[in-house]
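To whoever is on call:

I kicked off a structure prediction for a single chain this morning and the downstream step that reads the tokens threw a length-mismatch warning. I double-checked the sequence; it's 209 residues and nothing unusual in it as far as I can see. Pasting both halves so you can look.
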Amino acid sequence: MALTKRQKQVVDFIARFVEQNGYSPSYEEIARGLDLASLATVHKHISALESKQYLKRRFNQSRSLDLGPRYVEEEQRARQQAAESLLVPLRGRIAAGRPVEAVEQTEVVNLSEFMGRPDMFALEVRGESMIEDHICDGDVVLVERTPDVRDGEIVVALVGGSETTLKRFYREGERVRLQPANAALQPLLLPAEEVQIQGRLLAVLRKYK
């Protein structure tokens, strides 16, 4: 049997609460969290969800709600479908120089490795300081949030606590060199303590229409 809208809200609230706290909510917390009128209403929804195998109750225990097998199964199926929706067929290779023979392939590009990562964020590029690395004004860069980077990597650097920039990173003794990929621009040579690394480049996205 399908869930009602309110039943879905109840079981999703319980799942989020367990994920965030490591234990199930009390009936009072469910009522407050979903603005339900009474504990009797909570009991009614819990009983319905139990009968549909979305919840399990351990009797004579406080905070006794567990997610049922049907909820777990549906969540796993939803995550799998979401991951599969981010698979793009890789049809072969295309020449940017001399033409090459077109050969159909059956590989895929898995975009899910970039999606839903808590350590990832996106930035829109402004300016052309990285144009020779094919990062253009208006591109969106995907960045892994980390302070630990290697020399030569493209990083997001916070300079002087107030300005951010996208550059290649090099350590030079007690200084840091932030190197643009544009022959018309000079590198930034800064004391290491003035540069805070916020992340490293993962990917570049560009829209043409």
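Update from on-call: the warning came from a stale cache, not from the record. Cleared it. Sanity check on the structure: Residues 5-21 form the longest helix (17 residues).
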